[in-house]
Amino acid sequence: MANKSNTKKKKEKISLEESATSVQRTIDKIKGHKWPEYRGVQEGTKRGPYQPREKGVIKDKNFITTSCKECKQDFTYKRKGKRLKKFCSDKCRQKHYRTTKRQKYLDAQQNWQRN
């Protein structure tokens, strides 16, 4: 009895012309397709304002000095990527998240009560 797991099924090789006709059939199918109108950015929609990335003071090639968004203290960190750090520690980052989350909740409550 032959073990089926050890036998590998060989793929059929197709010619270059057969491959080209297959690709051409796929392209022909797509040509007549009308894309939905909701795809992409709608005409007349307002996008958000342009917000360029914040820049820190580069003291050294490998280190950047900037101020924390929460506690406003200057801190220096080793450069790892292009994106700059906004907070000096995870503690400050979490505190900022919690305060802004609470403020958004209170603003939503006030808007709800006005309406």
Largest sheet at a glance?
3 strands, antiparallel
**Strand coverage percent:** 5-15%
Order of helices and strands: HEEEH
Number of helices: 2
Give the overall pLDDT as a whole number: 81
- Which blocks of ≥5 consecutive residues have pLDDT under 50? none
Fraction of residues in helix? 25-40%
Estimated radius of gyration: 29 Å
Distance between the termini: 78 Å
Anisotropy-based shape: extended
The structural class is alpha+beta
List the strand order in the largest sheet.
1-2-3
- Could you give the count of β-strands? 3
Structure characteristics:
115 residues; alpha+beta; 3-stranded antiparallel sheet
Structure explained in plain terms:
The protein has helices spanning 16-31, 90-114, and strands at residues 57-58, 63-67, 74-78. The protein has a 3-stranded antiparallel beta sheet with strand order 1-2-3, with no helix packed on it. The relative contact order is 0.07. 36% of the residues lie in helices and 10% in strands. The longest helix is centred in the C-terminal third of the chain and has 25 residues, at 90-114. The model has no long low-confidence stretch (mean pLDDT 81). A hairpin with a 4-residue loop joins strand 1 and strand 2 (63-67). The protein is α+β, with helices and mostly antiparallel strands.
